[in-house]
Write a structure and sequence with these properties.
Length: 139
């Protein structure tokens, strides 16, 4: 993997581009001297967790011939207080699935993703992040 990162203003606004040309803007908060023109780098980790797990869950359910008509994840995360660097301490995900889906299969797909397949989840876990989740089906 190759990533190119370029500063694009006189502050902290950065543009990262992967080898396929996909771009992401990052910046710091106004309080920290940024212009709030992009995602914070630490937020990207949590977003990556959601994306990684979402791909796993949908893939597992498709293989089980479950009909997923809607899917979203809400994520709440807290960082360590009073530490530098300040790592993610707790991350809670709520998986919202709709469709003709067996509840046990949905729960198992999420469990497999979070405990076995999602590399971002394991990366966070190795940093002592407490990962929790719940599954809401057709709610």
């Amino acid at each position: 993997m190759k990533i190119a990162l370029q500063r694009i203003d006189d502050g902290f606004n950065m543009e990262a581009v992967d080898e396929n040309g996909h771009k992401v803007l990052m910046d710091s908060s106004v309080e920290n001297g940024g212009k709030n023109n992009g995602v914070r780098p630490m937020q990207m980790i949590v977003m990556g967790l959601g994306g990684c797990s979402a791909i796993d869950v949908v893939m597992i359910l498709k293989k089980q011939r479950q009909e997923v008509t809607d899917f979203r994840i809400e994520i709440e995360a807290d960082r360590e207080k009073g530490k530098e660097p300040s790592l993610w301490e707790n991350v809670h995900l709520v998986f919202h699935l709709s469709g003709n889906i067996d509840a046990d299969k949905a729960a198992r797909a999420v469990e497999l993703s979070m405990n076995k397949y999602c590399s971002v989840a394991e990366t966070l876990r190795r940093g002592n992040t407490r990962l929790t989740w719940e599954v809401k089906l057709n709610a």
